[in-house]
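pasting for the record
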Amino acid sequence: MHPQTTATTATTTNCQSTSGRAIIRSTSERQTLNSLVRASALFKTAYEDGILFEDASKYKEEAYFIAYFADSFRKRARTLSDLDVVLLSYPSAKVAGGSPYSNGGAASSGGRPGSSSSSVGSGGQQPQVTATQASTPWYHARILNGPAEFSERVVANHKAIVEISEQFINKMKYPTLLFNTTTTTTTTATDDKEAKAEKEKEAAGLKQKYLKEGTPATDTEKQTIIRGLYRLWLISLVYGANTIPEPGERNVDSDFGRMMACYRCLGGLKYWDVKVIQVLMAFLLKELKPVFWYYKRIEKVVNDGVLKGDFPEAVAEEIYTDRYFNTFMTTEFPHNAASWLNHSPKPLLLSERFSTLSSVIKSTTPKRPNEESLRFFLAKDVLKWHARELQNPWSVISGNEFSENVPLRPLCRLAGDGLGHKLPDTATPAVKKSAWLVVELGRQESTETDFWGAVWDDERLRGWGYCLPKFEEEGSGKKAWKGHLRRLSSRLKLH
């Protein structure tokens, strides 16, 4: 194509996108919208894309950052220090106090966070990064006024995210505690298979009633889920980034990379914001695990390449699932995710996509045992964020945050502390609250507290009959709250 023609086409597309957004903002034009949409397919496309762009802009902290940087995360080789510079352009990045591996966030001799040695962004710009973020990030101007490709990315990304959010709502908008307690009730020796089947049928019917007849998701709930999916995508991009060793080093420091990614992407969020991300990740893992296991009997890459050693069965199963799920999150999510979720009941339809994942794993599996790709730790690091934080000396979460600052939510089946495991009589209310937030709300199959309910509004939760937890003093002795949490999380294997 002639350069002038290409430029004209790009200009026209950009104008269409801009015009679509301008018309949406103009209430005086609304009376003519229907006739214009019917008369012009081109206008219809511009109008619909304008609506999507406006909706995506509600989540611009994540949506604009991802639209501008996502491609370079995958394609451009960066050291972890350089990657950290990019993350500091994310408005919600944890910056107060700097990185635990650096002195007050300043550049260190080891090439840690704060280094400014890289050029970042799709256009190679090198913005100055400071601990105090500007009210409007520099790359927003590129999204709003730059080439059409940026606004087109925002629209395409938002379509994919919204589709996943709709699937989550359609499958998970029910009180899982009612379903869990019905299906996990201990049966006696006299119970027969027919009685058990009848209970499961009753539970399935109850679930479908809530999904089909329950109150539609509110705007607040939809926004909570969509924002959580964007944030989940962001941390997945960081874990799947194309990283190279620091100058003078032979390997990428994977442990530091994991810490940096979680610290920057999760450390600046409040407890319930992180819990939403964990719920959404757990949902995707729950939906996709059966697909991965369907192909395990013929899978070669992980079975023959990674699991050659003498692993206990449970460990081998976890490694296999994590390899495929984490690679899915760093390569297929979100644009191909809807296809996976649609076809998860019929895994045979996903053979081509599964083969694609196998190829990626084969090309990224370390050649030496002491090398590990960041992507392989994604699910575990995100799902265990709070438990790990409370056991680390460089924790960004203080005891006071859990005992005083995190508001309680109605997520318990019955009145009480909502704990599935009894704590010592000497446990204080503050310890019990921390145990509820860190341990019980990390158990997806709990029959006392609804892990999955964190994405829904309190009004819906109360309508389901859920209660606030109540933590009371049982003994006069007082022990360090962290000591209790360490012992409890150790017993429940939350390390």
